[in-house]
Amino acid sequence: MKEKLTGALYPLITFGAILALWLVAVYVWDVPSYVLPKPLAVLGALKTGYIDGLFWHHFFYTLSSTAMGYVIGCVAAICVGAVVSEWRIAERLINPLVIALQSMPKVALAPLILVWFGFDQASKVIMVVLVCFFPVFVNTVVGLKQTPADLLEMARAANTGRWRTFWEIRFPSAAGHIFAGLQIAIVLSLIGAVVAEFVSSSEGLGYLINASALTMEVNVMFAALVSLAAMGVIGTQLVRFAHAKLVFWEGTLAATVQE
After folding, report:
1. Residue 233, C-beta contacts closer than 8 angstroms, at least 6 positions apart
2. What's the chain's average pLDDT?
3. What CATH number did the domain enclosing 124 receive?
4. What pLDDT is recorded for position 256?
5. How confident is the model at residue 184 (pLDDT cuts 50, 70, 90)?
């Protein structure tokens, strides 16, 4: 309990310091409201958005695009990473394509994705898939290739089949690396969704930020950014929770080492 309270205290200290600096900038340094809105103005925009209900449609549009793209991209990355780590010829065939695709700026790909998949939600999902794929793919391959050699030797000595060795030894050993990639992909998925909404959308938090910029409603822009930040923090915490529950042997091993 003490560790949980301490863990919650540090983010609150950081948030308090940022809020204090924000208040000083607005009320002491007289930063114009069109540059930095007052905290109460942002709270008012959040109240209008979520209590009066004006933001919910945009929020769920971005959330659904992000969630669908995240799941599809991460599952595809884990599957392709597993194939690449198991077969050398697959690594030679797929790695150059993945690296070439990752080298292309996603902002530059957005108009092409728009042409191919249209203005609907599909184009936003595809963008999220592309930005999520690479970090999970790389972490999956690295984790699978770093399986302890002594475990693999034990499997060979016991005549364990390749498929069983993968599921019972290689995949559990790589789980920590895979979850690290999943945490990175959470943040990138939101970036991908917002970029796609910037390019072409009449819905979503990215569209809301874009539209507010044209009308100079900076408080609404900040409210949308706070919504995206909350979405990212909650998503990251969910992945961390799943990591702790599913890859429980890492915590047990760490506790054993400390003792």
Report:
1. none
2. 85
3. 1.10.3720.10
4. 36
5. very high
